[in-house]
TrEMBL record:
It comes from Methanococcus vannielii (strain ATCC 35089 / DSM 1224 / JCM 13029 / OCM 148 / SB). It holds the Pfam family DUF7839. This is Regulatory protein Crp. One of its GO terms (biological process) is regulation of DNA-templated transcription. Gene3D superfamilies: Winged helix-like DNA-binding domain superfamily/Winged helix DNA-binding domain. PANTHER family: BSR5907 PROTEIN, HTH CRP-TYPE DOMAIN-CONTAINING PROTEIN. SUPFAM superfamilies: Winged helix' DNA-binding domain (SSF46785). GO terms for molecular function: DNA binding. Residues 14-63 form the HTH crp-type domain.
Length: 266
């Protein structure tokens, strides 16, 4: 239904509710539009023979108007029913990532990994669901009928403090410490910030999950059960440690610099 018809549907409804004594200003106040707008729509309704003006501000709906109003009401009911069904469907259906191939109707266990919900037929979990729309391993799927509670243990932060540019920057980084840490925590979210951090991750062919609003991103990831490896220069590391301390998140601080003689860079 077009916007114009919606307004005229409302005006017709007001005429039915209050006929024959109804003022255009009264309709305007009820619908939140101007009197001029009401007047224009009422002229059109009279032109279409949906209402009659009996004079002295008296308007009544015609049989033709009653028929079109019933038709509009039916259209609105169908539209609202469709919206309502989609609303509940949206509420009850959740996205997840398939840990293996699944099809509609499969009973699955659900768990958190790197802050995302995964679904697995092989998992014995306190949290279960049914597959609404299936998919292949690694694809997004839809799940519903969720039961139980997804266990989410707050993650920790491994802060890899790298030297700022004045301390040698990426040239003074112990890359073995970084790669060993990533190997030790393979499911961790990677966070970095600043020029040196981005050069370091680029050299290691790492694609950071968090690059902006780093402190907030780290806290959010930990609250969703992910460990975070933060490759950060000294001053930024201090700021991040204050934030994670405030949010009662545990952390490990490692020095990822070579600690070499800076005169080598002169």
């Amino acid at each position: 239904m077009k916007k114009r018809n919606i307004t005229e549907f409302q005006i017709l409804s007001e005429v039915v509710r209050k006929q024959p004594h109804i003022k255009q200003k009264e309709i305007a106040d009820t619908l939140g539009i101007t009197v001029q707008g009401v007047s224009e729509h009422m002229r059109n309704l009279m032109k279409e023979e949906f209402i009659k003006n009996k004079g002295r501000g008296e308007y009544v709906i015609t049989e033709k108007g009653m028929a079109v109003l019933k038709s509009w009401i039916s259209d609105f009911k169908s539209y609202l029913n469709d919206v309502n069904q989609n609303l509940y469907r949206y509420k009850d259906v959740w996205p997840a990532i398939a840990a293996e191939d699944v099809v509609s109707g499969d009973n699955i266990g659900i768990f958190m990994k790197k802050g995302l919900i995964y679904a697995s037929k092989e998992l014995n979990s306190n949290a279960t669901a049914k597959v609404f729309f299936g998919g292949l391993k690694g694809e997004d799927i839809a799940i519903h009928d969720i039961k139980g509670h997804i266990e989410v243990n707050k993650g920790k932060v491994i802060v890899l403090k790298i030297p700022a540019e004045v301390m040698g920057g990426s040239r003074n980084v112990n890359y073995d410490i970084i790669t060993d840490t990533i190997t030790e925590y393979p499911e961790s979210v990677i966070a970095t910030a600043g020029t040196v951090g981005n050069v370091v991750t680029s050299r290691l062919e790492i694609h950071p999950d968090i690059r902006f609003a780093v402190s907030e991103g780290i806290v959010s990831a930990c609250n969703r059960g992910s460990d975070v490896i933060a490759i950060i220069t000294g001053k930024m590391a201090e700021k991040i440690i204050k934030v994670i301390d405030k949010n009662k998140i545990s952390y490990i601080l490692l020095d990822a610099s070579k600690n070499i003689d800076l005169s080598e860079f002169e």
